[in-house]
Design brief:
- The complex is a heterodimer.
- Helices cover 70% and strands 2% of the residues of chain A.
- By secondary structure, chain A is mainly α.
- Chain A starts with 10 loop residues before the first helix and ends in a 5-residue tail after the last helix.
- Chain B has 2 domains: 49 residues, no CATH class; 211 residues, MetI-like (MetI-like fold, Orthogonal Bundle), CATH 1.10.3720.
- Chain B has 13 helices and no strands.
- Classes of the chains: A mainly alpha, B mainly alpha.
- At the A-B interface, helix 1, helix 2, helix 4, helix 5 and helix 6 of A face helix 1, helix 3, helix 4, helix 5 and helix 6 of B.
């Protein structure tokens, strides 16, 4: 999960919550010009370097384009995708990533944050888990290539404890390779979830917890009935980041299996990359990109819309 | 919590932490094995002290040093510029009389939603046409554009929370917008600016995709792209060299991350 390109939290709710500005009187021309000056650099850069190229990708997805010639083919690229088995596999893998990263990094991150929160030596456990998050993705890939390659670290570990029967070609068979890559990502990404959940825990007013404890709630009941509901805003952020991050997953797969063997472990982002940069089928790659974008936008919208509705009282 | 359950929790946490440390431990230990002697099976204990030799090889043959220098420039300047530009825009949509602030919010924020691969290929074509491909200027430009949206999200969230009285008092004093921004809002947003900077520094430092696509020569390529080359040429230098390179390349983010960690909570949490 990358923390820097997430769709996060709740922009819409937050925007709605902002008291709307005083009825818009026409501001004097000078201050409107000044406002334009303040906005312009961000808008120009984002539109120029992100939105214009994206619009071009959308345009290109309707063409058969090999980089030299371009013929309009309408929705052919899209229909071709839907009948392509590789694309189906890629979709399935992406789905595995979404579910896997929701269960593992988010689940473990929540457990660690809540479990170590009030513990004296909790900071030590948190350090062990946050450490890999600060290690770069490419470095993580080096470590895990090393761990998961045939006769690598994991196999050596299994042999040393006498579990020779479990020795595997971890990255060479599907679906094991996708599962192992999700585990590798869990190792790296859980730290970010721990940090965010800790931030959330700190904003829970202590007296609610104390009151619940006086009432005799403890352990699981305290967590489920008091702590977890109060963590809701942060849980929404973390789950939102996780969904978008896993739909877009790229680096880990590229570095660990390059989508292989064959195209067995490809995710949508990787399929798009291969179509465009390896096969030079620009139109087809663009169609995958547009498809992926639609999935990400719809998923985040559907999720946020459901989650941001005010809680029924 | 009872003593037994507390003890169980402690044991579970200790086991989980130890499992978590195994890959990091293996990474460090095996970076000490001489690259040429690597047998194919990872070592569990340091067998020799060749760490610095391996780092030397990585630096000499795969340009990890040059890559780190490039990345340092991109991450420092890029994240700095992105945070500054994002805070100008945040100031505009929260304080200044902009019509349709919500529209402008989405125009900038949408950058965090789009999958990066979706604009990679046109960007590549555009860069080639504009002679920005494989230039430091071009790399900086794309990193700034990519990191503005999230920085904007963080800083804007913070500025929304600042009391409106501040603005009114400043306006009464006759302060112009630029002065108000520089003297009041920027200093009051330090924690949010720091958090945004650290996240974006880390992001740029760890970027692989744009480094691989938009640069080719070693005096332009960021470090993650160089490291990927090193992993790809496993057979030539052996895993210990790649591990040693990865270890060194992780230091800057580790340092930045842990030294700025205390800013995260305050900068991101709207209630803090």
């Amino acid at each position: 999960m990358s923390l820097s390109q997430p769709v996060t939290s709740a922009p819409q709710a937050e925007l709605d919550a902002v008291p709307s500005k005083a009825p818009v009187r026409r501001a004097p021309f000078r201050s409107r010009a000044a406002a334009a000056g303040f906005l312009a650099p961000a808008v120009v850069l984002v539109v120029g370097l992100l939105m214009v190229p994206f619009a071009f990708t959308v345009y290109r997805s309707f063409f058969d384009d090999n980089g030299f010639t371009r013929t309009f083919t309408g929705f052919d690229n899209y229909t071709a995708l839907l009948t392509d088995e590789t694309f189906g596999q890629s979709l399935l893998n992406t789905l595995m990533w979404v579910v896997g990263t929701l269960v593992l990094p988010v689940g473990i991150g929540l457990a660690i944050a809540v479990g170590t929160w009030k513990l004296r030596l909790g900071a030590l456990a948190r350090f062990a888990i946050v450490l890999p998050y600060a290690i770069s993705g490419a470095a993580t890939a080096v470590v895990w290539t090393f761990m998961l390659s045939t006769d690598g670290g994991l196999d050596a570990m299994l042999r040393s404890v006498g579990l020779d029967g479990l020795v595997q070609q971890w990255l060479l068979q599907w679906p094991l390779n996708t599962v192992m890559m999700i585990i590798a990502t869990t190792w790296q990404a859980t730290g970010a979830c721990v940090i965010l959940f800790l931030v959330g825990l700190q904003s829970i007013p202590p007296n609610t917890l104390e009151a619940a404890q006086i009432d005799g709630a403890s352990g699981w009941r305290l967590f489920w009935n008091v702590t977890f509901p109060q963590l809701r805003p942060m849980t929404i952020v973390v789950v939102g980041i996780s969904i978008v991050g896993s739909l877009k997953v790229f680096d880990q797969v590229l570095l660990l299996t390059n989508g292989g063997p064959g195209t067995a472990s490809e995710t949508l982002a990787l399929t798009m990359y291969r179509e465009t940069f390896t096969l030079s089928r620009y139109g087809s790659g663009a169609a995958v990109a547009v498809f992926l974008t639609i999935v990400v936008v719809v998923a985040s919208y559907a999720y946020l819309r459901r989650q941001l509705r005010p809680e029924p009282k | 919590m009872t003593t037994t359950s507390r003890r169980t929790l402690g044991i579970v946490l200790a086991v989980v932490s130890l499992i978590w440390l195994i890959p990091s431990y293996l990474m460090v230990v095996n970076a000490f094995t001489p690259g040429a002697e690597y047998s194919g099976a990872p070592a569990w204990w340091p067998t020799s002290m060749s760490l610095f030799d391996n780092i030397g090889i990585a630096f000499a043959n795969a340009n990890v040093g040059q890559g780190m220098l490039n990345s340092l420039v991109y991450a420092l300047v890029g994240a700095g510029a992105a945070v500054l530009i994002a805070s100008l825009a945040s100031f505009a949509v929260t304080i200044m009389p902009v019509r349709r602030p919500t529209l402008w919010f989405w125009v900038i924020y949408v950058g965090t939603i789009l999958p990066l691969q979706a604009f990679l290929s046109p960007l590549f074509t555009g860069y080639a046409a504009a002679s920005l491909f494989d230039t430091q200027y071009g790399m900086l430009l794309v990193y700034v554009a990519l990191t503005i949206p999230f920085a904007f999200f963080v800083v804007r969230g913070h500025m929304t929370g600042l009391p409106t009285e501040i603005r009114e008092a400043a306006a009464l004093d006759g302060a112009g917008y630029l002065r108000m921004f520089l003297r009041i809002h920027l200093p009051l947003s330090t924690s949010a600016l720091m958090a945004a900077f650290v996240f974006q520094f880390t992001w740029i430092w760890n970027d692989l995709l744009f480094g691989l696509t938009l640069s080719s020569s070693s005096n332009i390529r960021p470090v993650m792209a160089t490291l990927a080359d090193l992993t790809g040429s496993y057979s030539t230098y052996g895993p210990p060299v790649a591990l040693a390179g990865a270890l060194v390349a992780s230091l800057p983010t580790l340092i930045v991350f842990f030294s700025f960690q205390r800013f995260f909570g305050r900068g991101l949490n709207p209630t803090a």
